[in-house]
Prior knowledge:
By secondary structure, this protein is α/β, with parallel strands linked by helices. The protein has helices at residues 10-15, 41-44, 68-71, 97-106, 123-154, 169-181, 202-211, 230-249, 258-270, 342-358, 371-388, 400-409, 426-434, and strands at residues 84-85, 88-89, 159-164, 187-192, 194-195, 199-200, 219-226, 280-285, 329-330, 396-398, 412-417, 439-441, 449-453. The chain is globular, with a radius of gyration of 22 Å.
Amino acid sequence: MDRDPLEHHRQSLQLQPQQQSQPQSQQPPPQSQQPQSQQPPSQQSQPQQSQPQQQSQPQLRSLPKQQPAQGACFHGSYRPEDVRFLLTPIQLEPTPVAEKERLIQSGQRHYSEMLSRESLPSPRYMTLFEQAWTMNRARMAQGLLDLAAIIANQRADAITLLSLARAGTPVGAVLKHTLTDLFARPTTHYSLSIIRDRGIDQQALRYVLEQAGHDPASIVFIDGWTGKGVIARELRRAIADFSEHRCKDEGKGDGEDEGDAKNEDQHQRRFPSLCLDPNLYALTDLAGVGIAPSDADYLIPSSIMNATLSGLVSRSILNEQIGPRDFHGCVYYAEFAPQDRSVWFVEALREAIREQLAAGYRPNPVPIDPSSARTRSRHLIAELKNRFAISDENLIKPGIGEATRVLLRRVPELLILRDAAIPEVAHLRQLANEKAVRCEIDPSLPYQAVALIKACQPS
């Protein structure tokens, strides 16, 4: 039956007034007009802790390490009702991009152990972002409505969103409000870490299930998009491993006494099969490995920005600073606060969603069939490996979002565009120009863009 998933709520949604804090314009606000409520998390959610001292390198200012129960209150520059980061804020010296690339490709260090210095986008790049936002706000709003409808259709009661930090965080924040306000579904949103070859943050997952007490059946893993599908496959492996070993780990402590056995029995009764859905839900699934309303390579505005659209947090870190009881780490960029647009982006998308509903848009609760995207992805990767004599698939980054990441924080060898004249790739051309990266046009490309990482020569 062709059923409107918002059938019971549509009339009230269009008539209810919204809070005065909602954005009144489609354009991003000037940098001097950012929300006043976005204070560093230590000032909002952790009043019991003393304020961290100013660091000698302000671009790496971060908070003290926290234990899991405290870390659950960390929300970056977002509001507490948007997200709770299950991450440990740490301090980390930046690694130069070229050195980081050498260490990664030589196998001396894992990418998750290091961060390069993150800087604010140039004025020209911000102009391109504003153009991208204006051009794609409606499409992203429709994608969020469709994804919310898919999730609501597949979960019976309350919903627990676990977005993958940090690309999934802005998407998860808007989905949380959409599911709560428009679909009348109680929804909680956490953002946690998953790392290629290292798996998901099991300490964070244990917190959600045990300390926060969420039903495993309510959990939905969220990301912005898929590229080659590496993270989606990593998620499946990680959830299988977590489910397999969880019961064995429960009840272990200083001794195997009667109390331990009783606790383990209670856990097994509560989670008899640990029915975690290992699928990755995203706005668009280029690789055909998840659940999504689209498989098109379109420009998702949040995909072309870094910390200032993701709660002022870095990508996740897993190095020697992270103890066995810590969440995976992150750096909090407090000095970027005057240019932060994280809360603005959430509110602007909520407004765009309301506009779509008012114009009569009906969310589609049926995900796209991933089979054609999966075939397309496999064929492209094989063709690029052969064409450029690439042995390591990790050097191939397909799609606008992944290509942007390469140009922002890796050492790119080549940018391939299907059509250099379209506005969706203007920011990629700008980044390639700023970094003197060679650009090639290939009209047969199945995606708008692909970036190739430069292979380091063995020393």
